[in-house]
Amino acid sequence: MKTFRPDLPPLHEAGPHGSALLPVNYFVRHSESGSEGCYYHWHEELELYYVKTGGVQLLCNGRRKWVYPGQLAVVNQNEPHRSLGFLDGTCHYVIQIDCQRLIQPFPLPLTSLSGLCVNQYEAGALIEDLLNLGNHKPCGWQLSLCAVALQLLSLLLETASHETNSIPQPCGNLQLVNQALDYVHRHLPEPISLASTARALCVSKSYLCHLFKQHTGLNLLTYINRLRVEKAAGLLREGRGVAEAARLSGYTNYSYFFRRFKQEKGLAPTDYAHKYSAI
Q: Above 80 in pLDDT, residue 168?
């Protein structure tokens, strides 16, 4: 079982999700209304959000939706998404399926699953079976777990075939948002801004600002600052000095860096370094 990591790299989450032998992975998260959601990201695996209690607000392809107890929401392969918020007492599971490994021999129409959110007893029962197999690991559990995952995909595809007209399509110019994300990542140590990013992409500031907020739930400057703080935190955990971490992350004003870092991490950079650099 995977431990939830709110500091996973934004944009492309390339870390391992499952393995060649077991192309299904899951993790559980308990949250309250003020809990931090995950960063805007995408990955090659199909992802399922199953809510036990409370509620999770998802942003996927620029569309927001709440997922409530008993509901199962699908985030398709390569779809940019993030969790925006939670209700008090939320418990939800995230199931990640490497479809390329699990169903490689079968050309299934997985694109039809985009935006699907179901509230079916059968789907919930299959999720519970999958989680029980992963937790208790009886003899042959890996094979059984893959079989349950295939049953679940089959059920979702059947459901999607009846709900195609009601499934929302991605909105806005997602390609432009991804270009903005790529530009920010490549130029992070430099003095980038909304104006410089818009100029590089040959669009207006107002259009880029609107589109970026629509798809990510954040304005561009907030995203840049969060990304810089995450990079600085990673450098501090590696044992780099505070001044070097700030500089390599794109900060030239150390007072501003200290303020933003403490706002995001709850600790001053020096305290954060002392606490985590030896871990």
A: no
CATH of 174-276, one of 1.10.10.10, 3.40.190.10, 1.10.10.60, 3.40.50.450: 1.10.10.60
Interatomic CA distance for residues 8 and 115, integer angstroms: 23
**Between 62 and 145, residue with greater pLDDT:** 145
Neighbour-count burial for 114-144, b at 16+ CB within 10 Å, e otherwise: bbbbbeeeebbebbebbbebbeeeeeeeeeb
Reported pTM = 0.69
Q: Which CATH number fits domain 11-166: 3.50.30.10, 2.60.120.10, 1.10.510.10, 2.30.110.10?
A: 2.60.120.10
Query: Helix, strand, coil: what percent of the chain each, to 5?
Result: 45, 20, 35
Q: Please report, rounded to a whole number, the percentage of residues in the chain having pLDDT higher than 70.
A: 87
How large is the average pLDDT for residues 80-84? 87
CA within 13 Å, CB half, 51: 26
Residue 10 has a pLDDT of 46
SS3 41: strand
